[in-house]
Amino acid sequence: MYYYKKRLGSHGFTLIEIMVVLVILGILAGLIVPRIIGRPDEARRMKAKIQIQSLETALQLYKLDTGNYPSTEQGLQALVEAPATGELARSWREGGYLEKGQVPKDPWGNEYIYLSPGTRDDFDIVSYGADGIAGGDGKNEDINNWDLE
């Protein structure tokens, strides 16, 4: 006959231990989830800022390769397709300058506004916020590349 020996210190969790862990997780979820769920507009604004910074980096790489920024007419699309109009890119990078091969839309589904030369610098990139209209306050406030840190 074969008997199993129970090793000392090797036992499973009791129902009480599992219940305590579930209560702790419930308390944590109750404190954290409302803070995250209550801030979707702030998360969208942060995403737009990150996307604008990414577009700025891609534009700087474009300028390093071609000698200038894309014109307003060529737009941000010049970062994913070699421009066919305006001043043509001398040494445009095969595959483009954006990882996913497409220009992202802002978090509200609108196109970013691109001007080159810009009103503030060599180029301007703007998201009009939640309402998609220039100006506004709160979640509708514009996000501009010249305002980013």
Could you characterize what this model shows?
- The chain is mostly helical.
- It has a single domain, classed as Glycoprotein, Type 4 Pilin, CATH 3.30.700.
- It is 34% helix and 6% strand.
Structural class: mainly alpha
* Strand order across the largest sheet: 1-2-3
Number of strands: 3
* Share in β-strands: 5-15%
User: How large, in whole angstroms, is the Cα Rg?
Assistant: 26 Å
Distance between the termini: 75 Å
Please tell me the CATH architecture by its name: 2-Layer Sandwich
So what's the overall shape? elongated
Low-confidence stretches: none
What is the count of distinct domains? 1
Helix content: 25-40%
Full CATH superfamily name:
Glycoprotein, Type 4 Pilin
Order of helices and strands: HHEEE
The major sheet is characterized as: 3 strands, antiparallel
CATH topology: Glycoprotein, Type 4 Pilin
User: What is the count of DSSP helices, taking H or I runs of 4+ residues?
Assistant: 2
Q: What number is the mean pLDDT?
A: 83
Quickly describe the structure.
With 149 residues, this protein is mainly alpha-helical.
Q: Topology of this protein?
A:
Layout: H1 15-37, H2 40-66, E1 113-115, E2 124-127, E3 143-144
Antiparallel strand pairs: 1-2, 2-3
